[in-house]
Specification:
With about 240 residues, the protein is α/β, with parallel strands linked by helices. The protein has two domains: about 5-155, 3-Layer(aba) Sandwich (Alpha/beta knot), CATH 3.40.1280.10; about 170-235, Orthogonal Bundle (Trp Operon Repressor, Chain A). The chain has helices spanning about 25-30, 65-75, 95-105, 145-155, 200-220, 220-235, and strands at about 5-10, 35-40, 55, 65, 85-95, 110-115, 120, 130-135, 185-190, 190. A five-stranded parallel β-sheet has the order 2-1-6-5-8, sandwiched between helices. A three-stranded mixed β-sheet has the order 3-4-7, with no helix packed on it. A two-stranded antiparallel ribbon has the order 9-10. Strand 1 (about 5-10), helix 1 (about 25-30) and strand 2 (about 35-40) form a beta-alpha-beta unit. Helix 3 (about 95-105) packs across helix 4 and helix 5 (about 200-220) crosses helix 6 (about 220-235). The radius of gyration is 22 Å and the shape is elongated.
Length: about 240
Amino acid sequence: MTPYRFDVVSLIPQAFTALNDLGVIGRAIKQKIAELHFYNPREFTSDSYHKVDDQPYGGGAGMLLKPEPIFKAFEAIPLLNRHRVLLMSPQGTPLSQKDLQRWAKETDQLVILCGHYEGFDERIRTLAHEEVSLGDFVLTGGELPAMIIINGLLRLFPGTLGKEESLFDESHSDILLEHPQYTRPAEFRGMKVPEVLRSGDHGAIERWREKQREERTRIRRPDLYDQWFTRKDSI
């Protein structure tokens, strides 16, 4: 199987070395389920200072990433036919499990552009198919969001997880949150494993789990519960 390809444009590519030691993700990289390639815009500058940022036109706080080194770094990436370019940005669409599933199914390559400083020159946005955010907050750079995307996407590929069927029951795989889970001992500090899980009645267990998923989602994420209930009601 041809490895999935991640190409990351980042000012601090060394930050991504942590992925190599991240359990199943690190093993998947070593097993060539995916390949990671990095492009530092500083290596694509033409001045002796390797300057990648400048002051914004019209004034304002902070510095902006210049377009020239970002464009040159991007143009050095060998693009596959089925690729998608993501820009990490607090202005982007919040990341969801559906995004990861879509990219895993529809692409063979993700190009990830990581911001830094105060932001991007607006023209850099023209390189991206999608802008992605982790939520309504601001970080110092796009490296952590990029690592989260690599982690979340890579675990969907065959061979990364020991039991691939675990992907289908986890939270956000189908709107509802995951049901409670227990392991031994059957009782710990007065807290007991529900009897139904120890009954051996697989039908009853499945009904209990489905009810727990619905109830947990209703309490913790009413927004998701409303989505699920609307979809269920329309079937």
